Amino acid sequence: MLGSRTIAWTAVVAALVFVAAGVALVALRDGGELEAGFVAEGTSGKTMTHEVEVQLPIGTVRLASGEPLEEIADRRVGRHGDGTVRAAGGATIVPVAWSFRPTLSYNDVLGYPTTFSLAVTAGGERTDLGEPDVDLHEATDSGLFPEASLIAVVAGDGDDLGFEVTYEGEAQSVAMATGKVEAGRAAALYPDGPQTYGTDGDCDARSAATSPDEIRYVSPDAGALYCRVDPIMRTPYLPDLGWASDGHVWHVVEVTVTAPRKVTWLPTGARYRVERDPVTVSLAGSEPVRGPRSNDDRETRKGTWIFDSPIDPAVSTLHLSAPMRAVRPSTTADGPASVDLGVDQTFELKQ
Questions:
Q1: For residue range 93-140, what is the model confidence (pLDDT) as tens digits?
Q2: Same domain, 69 and 13
Q3: What is the pTM of this model?
Q4: Pair 311, 251: CB distance under 8 Å
Q5: Does 199 lie in the same domain as 56?
Q6: Are residues 95 and 131 in the same domain?
Q7: What SS3 class is residue 9?
Q8: Are 155 and 14 within one domain?
Q9: Which of 121-125, 205-209, 210-214, 238-242 has the lowest mean pLDDT?
Q10: Closest-CA residue to 4 (of 98, 117, 99, 88)
Q11: N or C: which end of the chain has fewer CB within 10 A?
Q12: 287 versus 142: which is more confidently predicted?
């Protein structure tokens, strides 16, 4: 089990935006060796040798580390003078860096927590690096996203250097030497973040018709008889539901179905009233864990359905049902009493 250290930051690091819960901001004193657990903002001036990307529901954290060092210039760790400083016995100096880039659009990420925590691990010890709080609105406007270069002193020789990246209680462990990521419940985010699926055909708001000969005589006039299935998102995390259980993912399906309140039966010009049943969606035969709060009588019904699905096998089909009927007015006996419309379709999903 890893021990835990709270880092002693140099004063210059306070300029970074961090939620400093449990992180002491302590200015470095001149003199002495650097103990394991020390972290300062700065670089070694040498090229990083290892780089690993960690996927979060909101974006990608890129981690980097350099070769372990026996000593480093005082000025690179916030000390005065032109000399060098060494790590204390049983510890090693390692340059590390991180940066964050969102993978969701600004509108899509609204409602998501934007804070994650970082820690560096080595020699059986764990050192907290704090919690970057990402202001996506400001970052989107400026084009500048959070990043930091740090000099860390770790226990041991640094050969087992790793990181922990934690988002909403789910920690991912990274071995820098091998690039291996133990992703846990975040595994479905790899390789490139939340995935999306499309459907193999267009949604047809007349697909539930039982009589093709009759449906061609129905006109929505100035209204719209229309349906759409938006790209389906596959993700292990949603703000309202949290992380999916081990071996499962959330699928998010958004559907729009539009129909006018009345349509015209063209042979007679009679205005038929449109009656609508609730919209239902199933994914690979399974029922949603959450759907729209209501199916009201508005002309446009737009809703979101969320499914809890196993990671494997990948889901392959989506069924959409939105039955409607055009009902003849009581003032005439001409024309059929009712005409079936609406949606009754099964879609194959594709990436």
A1: 999 999 999 887 777 777 899 899 999 999 999 999 989 877 877 777
A2: yes
A3: 0.83
A4: no
A5: no
A6: yes
A7: strand
A8: yes
A9: 210-214
A10: 117
A11: N
A12: 287
